[in-house]
Amino acid sequence: MKKYLHIILFLFTSCAGTALNPAKGKILVIVSSESELPLKDGKKYRTGYFFNELIIPVMRLKEKGYEVVFANPIGNTPYMDIRSLTAKYFKNEEEYTAAKILHENLETLRAPRSLRAIVDDGLSTYDGLFIPGGHAPMTDLMIHPEMGTILEHFHKNKKPTALICHGPVVLAAAMDNPEKFKNALIENDSNGIRKYSKKWTYRGYRMTIFSTIEEKASEDALDGVPLFYPEEVLKRAGGKVSVGNKWEPNVLKDKELITGQNPASDELLVQTFIKALED
């Protein structure tokens, strides 16, 4: 019992602490509303948010006293990529147990606000934006109009904006017509890609994302091939993309933008994010 006492105390302070002490700040965490990733040949992969990429940053933010507000496009209960629910992405079994306990008690994750409601209520109260990975953002977040509005707000106000693994594809929403850009990617239409990414907010930023090498190594698990590769999204949009070794932590910061390459980058990403928030 003593072994898990600090987990119970952490859970109590995480879920009830905001009622006892004012939060240090408020962080907007956006996840996908989708549960499938369309693949080539008409196949689909059952997906959602990646467990450790969401829960480790949320855990660290809560430990530092930040309030976390969850949102997604339509306000539905988000899906988890069930293959991500494993101890191998955590330091040890104890941390994995603590993460599962926290996750089970995140009631606001099961009832997130819609992006429309978040925008309508105003974004000025949020100190930072965080978007975890999983393949699902490639389906809806990267083309969602309110997502573009939210990104523009955090960009213009120089507020820390952190995305991990597949999450950075969402940056494509900060274009005039991200849906046409996405279609041009699928069709490998170079002229369309250049046309629709011409006024991209993050053009020229240094950034990283789940690499094409890593994605291709994951295709057996997907049982198919994605319609486009995340790394190509950012490169062809005009980002200065740099990826590190396969499955090793890699985080880049450029101005307000903080990006992490893969699940192994979760801890480094959130520590960089917290430092940016506190600076």
Keywords:
279 residues; alpha/beta; Rossmann fold; two-stranded antiparallel sheet; 11 strands
Describe this structure in words.
Strands 5-4-1-6-7-11-10 form a seven-stranded mixed sheet, with helices on both faces. A two-stranded antiparallel ribbon has the order 2-3. With 279 residues, it is α/β, with parallel strands linked by helices. It has helices at 5-20, 51-63, 93-104, 107-110, 115-121, 145-156, 178-186, 190-196, 212-217, 219-222, 230-237, 266-278, and strands at residues 26-30, 36-38, 44-46, 67-72, 113-114, 128-131, 161-164, 206-207, 240-241, 251-254, 257-260. 40% of the residues lie in helices and 14% in strands. It has a single domain (2-278), classed as Class I glutamine amidotransferase (GATase) domain (Rossmann fold). A hairpin with a 5-residue loop joins strand 2 and strand 3. Mean pLDDT is 93; it is low at 1-5 and 16-20. The protein contains twelve helices and eleven strands. It is globular and about 50 Å long. Helix 2 (51-63) runs parallel beside helix 12 (266-278).
